[in-house]
Amino acid sequence: MNAAKRSDTTPAALTAAEDRLNAILGLVGEQGFQSIDMLAERFGVSTQTIRRDVNALCERGLCRRRHGGVDVLPDAAQNVAYTARRILHREAKQSIARCVAQAVPEGASLFFGIGTTPEECAAALQQRQQLRVMTNNLNVVAALRRNPGCELVMAGGRLRNTDNDVVAGEAHEFFSRYAADIGIYGVGGVAEDGSLLDFSQDEVRMRSELAKHCRQRYLVLDHSKFGRSATVRGGHITEAHRVFTDRPVPAPIAAMLLDAGVQLVVASALTYPPLALTTGEH
């Protein structure tokens, strides 16, 4: 028994457990409710182990318990915690980031907006030389600060502690002081009509200012953002020059992008079928 307990705390065991948590979170995000029995069978572990996993995810604020299983957190008025978003759809975000990195030349000047997908894009550019980066996202700074060939400029103002970004007050005019080759930004959601949605007016204002002052606009978002509700409208998907995502987008959105001459880059187009938009008010 003691040996078994010790083996559960080895680096390999801890890594396997964390990988399973990420996989469970991904399944819940993709498919909704997952039963304890189904998860135990899928991962080849006991139901007791899955219950511990579910407890860990719920304690982190990533999921909610339901009788016999686990489900997503329904709250359109508030974004999921940043720690949860970092895990959710991470492989999709990394595949998007690799595509973005291929489109960014050495020596480029870049704006980075807030969010986990721009953070992954920054991580994918860690080895790129002679970049000049302006951002209000401290996670982007952390990803690029060890690159001696990257000049970093950070917006000042009040830090949102949970998100590691600056979106209010004096930061509002930050991007207007520069002109960048490429702006890389995410979004809280995309409505059926192509409107971009976020969770606060400050977030929308910072994104809008970023988009105004760069020559090329790169919108980066995983498939879960299409049809996702958020409370504040600002901008339209067709205002981007390139849209990077991980799956084929809903047909009406694809038609909008085609008509507007926006380049759609799908990181894994051969893997998944097109999505259908969810209905409802946005």
From TrEMBL:
Residues 17-72 form the HTH deoR-type domain. One of its GO terms (molecular function) is DNA binding. Gene3D superfamilies: 4-hydroxybutyrate coenzyme like domains (3.30.750.70), Winged helix-like DNA-binding domain superfamily/Winged helix DNA-binding domain (1.10.10.10). Keywords: DNA-binding, Repressor, Transcription, Transcription regulation. This is DeoR family transcriptional regulator. It comes from Roseateles toxinivorans.
